[in-house]
Amino acid sequence: MIPTRPPATDATWLEQHNPDRLPPGLFERRIAEIAAIAGAHPPAPALPRPQERWQDDVIAAEVQVGSRVLDLGCGNGQLIERLQRERQARGQGVEVDPEAVLAGIERGVCVLQADLSEGLSWFADASFDFVILEETLQTLPNPWLMLSEMLRVGRRGIVSFPNFGHWRVIVDLLAHGRMPVTERLPSHWYDSRNIHPFTLQDLLDWVDAWKVRLVAGHSFSDGSLRPLRPEDDNLLAEEILLVVERK
Amino acid sequence: MTCPASVPDSERKSATSPSQRPGDSANQPFDASSVGWTSANTIRLVSADAPLSLALGGQLGPIDVEYETYGSLSPAKDNVVFVAHALSGDAHAAGWDKNAGAARPWRARKPGWWEAIIGPGKAIDTNRFFVICPNVLGGCYGTTGPASLDPATGKPYALRFPKVTVSDWVAVHGRLLDALGIERVSAVVGGSLGGQQALEMALRFPDRVDRAVVLAASARLSAQGLAFNTVGRFCILNDPSFADGDYYPTAGPSSGLAAARMLAHITYLSNDGMHEKFGRRLQGGQADTENGFGVEFAVESYLDYQGRRFVERFDANSYLYITRAMDYYDATAWGQGNLVEACRRIKGRVLVVSFSSDWLYPPEACRELALAIVKAGKQASYVNVPSPYGHDAFLVESSAVSRLLAGFLRQP
Fold first, then answer.
1. Which residues in chain B (371-410) have CB-CB distances under 8 A to chain A?
2. Which of A56, B160, B351, B364 is deepest in the core (most CB within 10 A)?
3. Which CATH architecture group holds B25-221+329-410?
4. Could A108 and B381 be called an inter-chain contact, meaning their C-beta atoms sit closer than 8 Å?
5. Helix B193-204 and helix B316-328: axis angle, to 10°?
6. Hey, are the CB atoms on B351 and A105 less than 8 Å from each other?
7. What pLDDT digit, counting tens, does each position of B194-231 carry?
8. Is A21 a domain residue?
9. Whether B244 is catalytic
10. ipTM field
């Protein structure tokens, strides 16, 4: 049974989330907090181009030697190839784009062409040690189902995602009144792959609701990587990687 | 071996000029990327006194198998790629038949059917692998079949040849490996009916197959596929020259066999592919309104050509037996009707490839096989290669197939 949040039409839920009835001072405190962070940061264009796919290094370190690994939305299989080479993993990828699947098989990786919107029914329970959703969850039509599937077929899940709670995203939306476009989120609303944007807090809510254990977290912002600070990183982390497991 | 006599073919195109004949080394029709001149081997795998028990009952013996090999077998005998041919294919998978001669003149015009894939430096690299390709039981290319002499009568078996199945073929393939002293294969590879042999080998001999490649094939033929084969056989069986199969040594039901082949070729292409290749073009530029029903459209000419070419080189009785084996094949038999249960037998890795416009072994059916293997807890790769070439794509899309095979054969 998949736990869900109360429906957005639930009266109590609506009352608690009504932007017209915020607790006194909350909005002002949040604005001041974001303004302080923004003021302390150098302007974005001065930043060096962030390293691509920092997540691969973290995943390679998180995955134990000899693990069975499932990479969902594996693209051309680059990560699995690396895990096979460096961690002696037994890898399996799933990818929807036939050209990427072809490239993956060509590089010696086991890849199944399939659409993740159909779920993972063809994988047996607990058939992998790690299930990886690298920059994929927010692109899926049914991320809630996929999170459940991830921990059904895998002992541990690794989820990396762009954090839509980051201060720069909020400031951009606030200042311009349009869907945010930042260096790490370069697409416009109409051509973005990110059809289900979410924040760190959203995912931490999921961790709570599902009684999932947060094993490790990594936060990436302004080109540097550090361990997750759950209390600060909803505003400070541009990108996040969480390792979770069933309790 | 008795294959039907040749039918005059005015459209015959020659890939090699008469000066490029075997033995004329100055004018070899191949370069260093080919395995070059080939010659087949024939081996008696089953003797008359210890016949093979067949899947549908009955026994058969003796059984001779014609096969070709390319590359060198490693001292450890661990570099074997076993190639299985499709319905109308043969053991001559690569290179140029040194002995084409009068018996198989069509082989002087073109190389083996998978020349694009098998050879030095190619996807199935003969510098690395020892490739074995046998002709199937019931065929007409040197392996025991309906045209072979029945030792009981001294005459060709014709329809007295027992019904054989893909399972029987693979049993014979296993005996061939035994005879060559090969315990296990690095890979078994095939397309279409050859893909089903690859699958069957992985199911029947799980400990002997490290990898299996199933191209444009699924666990079983669909009702539509069965229907196509039915019409093909109907054409042969109702040809006045069929004579209940006892037509040897004449060519027998040539027009029936040609019609079967024409229909089959339609199923090997796709609507888009045919549109692209022929459209509604008229062969002579204009319709022949005077003379009724000759060859007018380009597509008509293509089918006419394919039909006539085929009867030069194929035996109608073999066509009956092989299409029937194709009909009967059902991999789910290994799991009492459940494909996932069947796939639990597999021990090696499997690569399943479908082609988007294939309607003989459609992508959904191939995908079902790949997912069943995964559901059974085995490692599988699956890709649906976008292609307008229909079922034929497994032979035509050699660039995509090369990339897939090279990568898959490299997998640890």
1. 371, 374-375, 377, 379-386, 400, 403-404, 406-408, 410
2. B351
3. 3-Layer(aba) Sandwich (3.40)
4. no
5. 50
6. yes
7. 999 999 999 999 999 999 999 999 999 999 999 999 99
8. no
9. no
10. 0.90
